[in-house]
Write a structure and sequence with these properties.
59% helix, mainly alpha, 8 helices
């Protein structure tokens, strides 16, 4: 963990692991930089249970697995691509509806990340080489489990920033659970690797959103 800045306890961006900071878009970094660091941030994760790390296969097991049956690998990839397209549309829609410019750019960054996931799946399906897959480096991602205490809800116009973050982190939790399930059903090494990558990517998003949520709620005095 890097030392805090002299003028305070350090920005939330610096509190994130180096590998996670490197994966964040500029807009998300800007939002994190404006939020208030609190004791619940990553330098104090020992206060919370986070035994599971994404790079320790198998990935954190979802609380409730929905039984899924697919006829073949192509069906699995098609299903995953459909879910990624939904994620792209979701974050793109949020970026267009949000009133705060920083939030708009942050969600636009997430939409771009989800589009990359869609493209990776598409390349695996077609058999085309993908540099993002072949050169991917797995890292440890802590699970601080904030989304475990969030009730799933649908987006509504006028939702507060904290509610949007809760909605988004819950979606990322479900995406992580989905890719855990699909990983178990993958038949080829290439497919297994892509789902391991997607597990890690969704875990990164979940951690970033949960960190934003912690800092925002501290700023509001909760």
């Amino acid at each position: 963990m890097e030392p805090s800045r002299p003028e305070g306890r350090g920005s939330p961006v610096k509190k994130l692991p180096i590998f996670l900071r490197a994966s964040l878009g500029p807009a998300l970094k800007a939002v994190l930089a404006e939020s208030i660091p609190v004791a619940a941030n990553l330098d104090n994760l020992h206060r919370f249970p986070y035994k599971h790390f994404v790079s320790n296969f198998p990935y954190p097991t979802p609380r409730k697995e929905v039984p899924m049956h697919f006829e073949n690998m192509e069906a699995i990839l098609n299903f995953a691509m459909e879910k990624e397209k939904e994620a792209v549309d979701f974050y793109r829609s949020l970026s267009e509806k949000e009133s705060l410019s920083g939030s708009r750019e942050m969600f636009a960054d997430f939409a771009k990340e989800e589009q990359k996931h869609f493209d990776m799946l598409s390349n695996v399906k077609s058999g085309a080489p993908d540099k993002a897959v072949t050169g991917y480096k797995f890292k440890w991602i802590p699970d601080i489990k904030r989304s475990d205490y969030v009730v799933e809800t649908a987006y509504q116009e006028g939702m507060g920033y904290n509610e949007i973050l809760m909605l988004a982190m819950k979606r990322e939790e479900k995406a992580l659970a989905l890719y855990n399930t699909l990983l178990k059903q993958a038949e080829t090494e290439a497919a297994k690797k892509i789902f391991k990558i997607l597990c890690q990517e969704e875990a990164k998003h979940k951690l970033a959103l949960e960190t934003l949520y912690d800092d925002y709620m501290a700023k509001m005095g909760d």
